[in-house]
Amino acid sequence: MNRFTGAIEMSLQNENWYSALFLAMTIPDICCRLETGLKVDYKTYATWFDKYLGSEFKATHSDGTETIFLTGIDCYALRCALLHQGDTDFDGHRAWSKRLSDFHFVVASCSRGLVDDVLFLDVRDFCRDMINGANNWFVDFVKSDQLALDKLATRLVIHVGDSTVGNVTIGGDVKKLPNGVEDILLQFFKNGYESDELERYLVSTGFPEKSAKTRVSDVVKAATSRVADVTIMHSHLAAKSMRENKSDQ
Predict the structure, then answer these.
(1) Sequence spans of domains, the chain
(2) How far is residue 21's CA from residue 123's CA, in Å, rounded to a whole number?
């Protein structure tokens, strides 16, 4: 997921609000498709949003009352209006969301606000909430699905540098791991994944296939050679044993 969440974060850093927002709106679609393999509809999208982001868009007041800023159904209606029409006029999606009459994205000190039935959201906070939701989902996905890496490898990859796609070789030189990938490789290793599986994941990010083996080896050696990280190998072996036992059942 780093290729998508990293692109959102980069867009935010560059103040490219529209790029960040439009990609953030697709995060539940991507996650649900990976998890189920089925076409994502409004129910699936809304359920994912409510599970991983619902609590972020609720506020409980001192008198015990609760304000709900955004639900999964609301977000799906907004997603359709934005991605298909480029606006927040979701009258055509009124069957899904009937609570709100309009949305406004802002860059302001206030993260979110609800005035009557009009919702105001800070675009930076909204996008980073989506990133956090994706990260939390990713942890659950990897733990629950032994084929998680294979499924992730099927997502869109923009090949950068020296890559091979089918019988076509794309020239270039990539020496640096994509942002955040080293941490993800290390987390997979701690979860019991073998080097060949880590290599497949690294290639799925667009990293050159012929260099993946060396870079994975470097990451694992660097981590397990440090005295402070000796528990990493123990975690790897324990998780590997659990995966093997699970596959034998």
Answers:
(1) 2-130, 159-248
(2) 7
